[in-house]
Amino acid sequence: PGSVSAAFQDYLQHLGLQDFPCGLGSWNKSRCHARRSSRAQPAGLEEAVPPGEESPEVLLELLRDQHSPWALPHDCSPQAQRLREMVVLAPELLHSSRIFQLVKSLRILDKGVEEVDEGLLQFQQLEELILSANHVSRVTSAHLPRTLKVLELCYNDVDDLQDLCAQPPPELQHLGLGYNQLCGPSQEKHLTVDFWPNLVSLDLSFNSLTDLLGLVSQLCTLQSLRILLLQGNPLSLIPAYRGFLVDSLPKLSILDDIYIWPDERQQFQGLARQPELIRSEARLVVSIGEMKGLPNPTDFQQLELECEGPVIACSYYVTYQF
């Protein structure tokens, strides 16, 4: 599927919502007909189950029993189980848009999704959208439900935030953009309180951001920010990187998955007022330990002195690809 909506339809089909014991069929057709009737069932009286049909309790047991052939695998989400149970109790949900109102968390991982389409607006109660390991390069914010609090886009192809920041969800608390293709310094302007007033957690790890001073000047406006991931960017190689961030963002609690303790904050106090320490260069030191299985070049040197015959010379080199 190329879009989120198409992937969701595949997800529903995978859950078997149209098939026994969910959906509508000979096993529950009279109950569905009774729901459409205008005559209400008297309180306290249970509806009799016609011959050949199953009660909701029996159908639910078939879904919940781990030994049942209709049980979901153990790695399925709790939401998948709730959706199936809701369709058992109310089969008419399958034939209306109400099914979208039941979804608060949508996880579509590694399904080849390329587009966050307008169909996502049908999820009017959606709070969490996880689209990791897909092929999304652009996110049109007008297609995101306003109720969204978590947006995870790690391992995608996002290289620009302009479309995402046009009308971003106002209540968003976590934005995950790790392992994408963001390049500085043009993207820093999109990471301010004007776009993300309630952002608590931001993951920008393993992109190509290079302007530490420019990025920090924008992140300083995010007063609710407590968790920040920047590891894997070129700017994280700057020697004063961690200390400068710790002192520049006093409300930050976790940087690159490491908790900021009070003594560390005290150690770097005042570093934010010394931007001249932030140089646009980095030094990378690589140490090679023991290497096994290779002939020692000194052995050949000794052999060359003692032997009059032809000598095979061996040399080795190491390459680093960045």
UniProtKB/TrEMBL annotation:
Check the record and name the InterPro entries matching this protein. Answer: Leu-rich_rpt (IPR001611), LRR_dom_sf (IPR032675)
Gene3D superfamilies per UniProt:
Ribonuclease Inhibitor
Protein name as catalogued: LRC43 protein
**PROSITE patterns, per the entry:** LRR
Tell me which domain of life the UniProt entry assigns to the organism this sequence originates from. Answer: Eukaryota
Name of the coding gene: Lrrc43
- Keyword field: Leucine-rich repeat, Repeat
Tagged with keyword Chloroplast? no
State the SUPFAM superfamilies in the record: Outer arm dynein light chain 1 (SSF52075)
Among the entry's GO cellular component annotations, what is one?
Answer: cytoplasm
Establish whether keyword Repeat is in the entry: yes
